[in-house]
Amino acid sequence: MWDYDSLIGKAKAYNDRASSASTESLDFGLWLLFGFEFLARATLARKHPTLLAAPDGESILAALGIEGTRAAKSIPFHTVVTRLRYVVGDFTPEVGQDATDLMNIRNAEMHTGESAIESKTLDSWLPKLIRASKVLTDHLGYEINDLIGEEVVALGERLIDAEDMKLVAEIRKRVEEHRRFWSNLTAGERQQRGAVSRWPVPYGMPCLACGTSVKINYEEARRSGVRVDLDGNRVVSVQNLATSLQCVACGLELGSTAEVRAAGIPHLVQTEEEIDDRYDDVYEPDYGND
Questions:
Q1: pLDDT of residue 197 exceeding 80
Q2: Is 158 a domain residue?
Q3: Which end of the chain is less congested by CB atoms within 10 angstroms, N or C?
């Protein structure tokens, strides 16, 4: 029911149908949105089919190949998005929001009288689909062109490029505005504002506008499996995603990972954490070994 090969095959079949349709047609959008949902579900299925099973009833048993007496049920798409955050390291909150937006369009098309797809321009949804699909296909080890038609991908990427260039220009303008604000302050004002802006690594870096220490906010994106390092310690690799930046000195703010990335700031930081450090205070020493 939730076999990876059948789900990824279905995603490709629907995307192939979209490639044969006119970009202005309802079929183009509808088949791509169907294909995207199956790509997302296939990504969870490859990790384990139980990730697609509803937690109630006998669905988890069905995912394990155990036949039950009731029909198995799949998780809703918003739960797919939540679980992909744990499975795919680059499936950021922004990618998750893109995926949710896409499914909202599909749901409005399927369940309301609204012409949800035809009423929207391609540049309002196709970049989101290509961007989110690429995160998933990269994780699965596919080239995105293997699952979505090359011409469709090329069109989506051109729209993404235009969108990214617009954001980069917007961020540059914002930085320049705060740079001018900073330069118009007196030396005393700059010293006073700079004195309250002190952030240690990895949370701090020089502000792009004023050069004082600025805080970067990080969110844990993914945690790898346990391994043993050269010193014999049990460690995990933790990927931390930059989600925002605030400078209390000049007031510059970047409010999302996309804005941090557009500013040219590394948005993914990897650290290592010793497992024993997390659990030493939780468990009692082994009884009888004292």
A1: no
A2: no
A3: C
Q: Which residues pair with 236 in a beta bridge?
A: 273
Separation of alpha carbons 121 and 30, rounded Å: 14
DSSP state of 210: T
Contact between residue 227 and residue 235 where contact means Cβ atoms under 8 Å apart: yes
Quick check: 284 pLDDT over 70? no
Give the count of beta carbons closer than 10 Å to the beta carbon of residue 129: 25
Neighbouring C-alpha atoms within 13 Å toward the C-beta of 1: 20
Domain that holds residue 198: 164-279
Return the H-helix or E-strand segment holding 24. none
Asked if residue 258 belongs to a domain, the reply is yes
Residue reference for tokens 């062109």? 145
Could you tell me how many residues make up the chain? Answer: 290
Nearest 5°: phi and psi at 274?
A: -80, 130
Same domain, 115 and 185: no
Question: Cα 125 vs. chain centroid, distance in angstroms?
Answer: 16
Those residues whose C-beta lies under 8 Å from the C-beta of residue 47, and which sit 6 or more positions away, are: 87
Alpha carbons 92 and 267: distance in angstroms, whole number: 11
For residue 63, the model assigns a pLDDT of 79
Question: Which position has the token pair 């949710």?
Answer: 100
Kindly state the tokens that stand for 276.
Answer: 């024993």
Asked if residue 202 has a cis previous peptide bond (ω within 30° of 0), the answer is yes
Q: By C-alpha distance, which of 152, 118, 162 is closest to 36?
A: 152
8 Å CB contact between 53 and 74: yes
